[in-house]
Design a protein that fits this description.
Helices cover 59% and strands 1% of the residues. By secondary structure, it is mainly α.
Length: 308
């Protein structure tokens, strides 16, 4: 009988811990993942962000254990979990969440529970008679219908389609603005911001039972042969056509309302006369750079007045 205390080399690496017997990395993952998931949820991490956060944290733990196998020998279970959390890139996930509305998060049930985060097609606790994957299919159909509706509505406006492309994909603002043929800032303010509000409203209507997203302003509906088909129609062209056709009451009401505001009153009259901002500024002795903003505001006021 051998007196040497020789143990066979394990086929799978095991790591000593202070709270249990030495464990493989798979056993460590099973032991810590539930704890880490609950803490991440308490920090506001959403279910669709959990897999990436946990993967980042456990990858960091694996790399540390590969270089230092006894890393957990003097650490408590709580310290091990918070080592994972500190490397899970929570702040990055939350920063990205503030930039976009997550479609997955909009349809998720009470995600503060401790159920598994995977979709296995047999989620029977949703109160449905059909299998759980039917809900996922319905959600994707709703998304497809919303996207088709918006794409059809703005089919004649490349700048709106570029904004929709930017909002719903990971294309950069600079690249999307180049497609639209505008500077990024001007294009964002004129097209992306209002369309983003509409996209949020449409998806909330399709995916949420109740919501407080404001309804987008209705598009102008022309009468007669120019009647709108539901596609994008320039509001500038709409009020201009109505004014040229003899419908002058809204314009006169605006002129009367702002008669004591010289710059805006002059800009309104210049818009009605069809002048560009440079010529209009020269005619009234104003700076073109500063008078341009009054012309833009006058155009918005006229669009709103004729849309009402």
């Amino acid at each position: 009988m051998s007196t040497f205390n020789i143990k066979p080399f394990p086929r799978v690496a095991v790591y000593p811990t202070s709270w249990a017997e030495p464990m493989t990395f798979e056993q460590l993952h099973d032991d810590l993942v539930h704890y880490a998931s609950n803490v991440l949820k308490s920090y506001g991490v959403l279910p669709h962000q959990l897999p990436d956060c946990l993967q980042n944290g456990f990858m960091a733990l694996w790399e540390t254990l590969s270089a230092q196998p006894d890393f957990l020998a003097e650490k408590t279970r709580r310290q091990a979990v918070f080592f994972i959390l500190a490397r899970s890139k929570i702040s990055t996930m939350q920063y990205q969440a503030q930039m976009y509305d997550s479609l997955d998060a909009m349809v998720t049930d009470d995600w503060h529970n401790t159920a598994d985060e995977q979709i296995d097609g047999m989620q029977h606790q949703r109160g449905e008679r059909a299998a759980g994957f039917a809900t996922q299919v319905d959600m994707r159909l709703d998304i497809e219908r919303v996207m088709h509706k918006l794409a059809t509505k703005y089919a004649d406006s490349l700048r709106h389609l570029a904004a929709l492309y930017y909002i719903t994909t990971q294309v950069t603002r600079q690249d999307a603005a180049a497609i639209a043929g505008m500077t990024p800032w001007n294009w964002t303010q004129s097209y992306v911001v209002p369309l983003l509000a509409e996209v949020r409203y449409e998806f909330a209507e399709a995916l949420l039972e109740t919501h407080d997203y404001p309804a987008p302003k209705p598009m102008i509906d022309h009468q007669g042969k120019n009647r709108s088909t539901g596609r994008f129609v320039s509001p500038y062209r709409a009020w201009r056509e109505q004014y040229s056709a003899g419908h002058i009451a809204p314009a006169e009401a605006l002129l009367d309302q702002y008669r004591h505001t010289p710059c805006l009153s002059l800009a309104l009259q210049a818009q009605l006369d069809g002048k560009g901002y440079r010529k209009a500024a020269a005619d009234v002795g104003r700076s073109a750079n500063t008078f341009k903003k009054h012309m833009n505001r006058a155009a918005r006021l006229l669009s709103e007045a004729y849309a009402g």
